Amino acid sequence: MKNLIRTFLVAAMYLLSGTVIAQDKTAEMSISFGKEDDKNVCKVALVSEGKPAAEIAVKLYVKRLFGNLQIGEEVSTDETGVASFEFPSDIPLNSEGKLVVLAKVEDDENYGSIEEETQTAIGKKVDLTQLELEKRSISGADAPLYFIAGSLIIFAGIWGAIIYVILLVFKIKKSATQTN
Prior knowledge:
Elements: H1 2-22, E1 28-36, E2 39-48, E3 51-52, E4 57-64, E5 67-76, E6 82-86, E7 99-108, E8 112-120, H2 145-179
Antiparallel strand pairs: 1-2, 2-3, 2-6, 4-5, 4-7, 7-8
């Protein structure tokens, strides 16, 4: 029994050490932007030990307020180690006039997880001074007519049910006193 446990532990340590060794490679990632055929293009280059890293799946994200917005589908690097993404120009920029772009390699068997972040000014600038704020109040003179009518109908129904129940209680009390 001890030999079986010892064999199992040696096999587990061998498998775990193989996993760590398999992810021992490191890669450097760089992000660049340009124009090709009147389209904005984002290129992500991966280099490992001075050589291009080919056939590595890369995802491109834009950081937003509550999470990351994925841009396009996952793209694999070519033989030169470059993954090209068509970058949309209609994403609203942040208050500083920039977009934070994030390129990720997630759980690759050779390189593990890699992230690179950069900023770009490609996007749609939103003029916040020109925005008309909608009045979304349900009180006072700003309330829409259907809010007022709907709430009055609901309140009338609730109070009507309460008054009806009170009248029934008095009827029950009155009928109980008449039978005695």
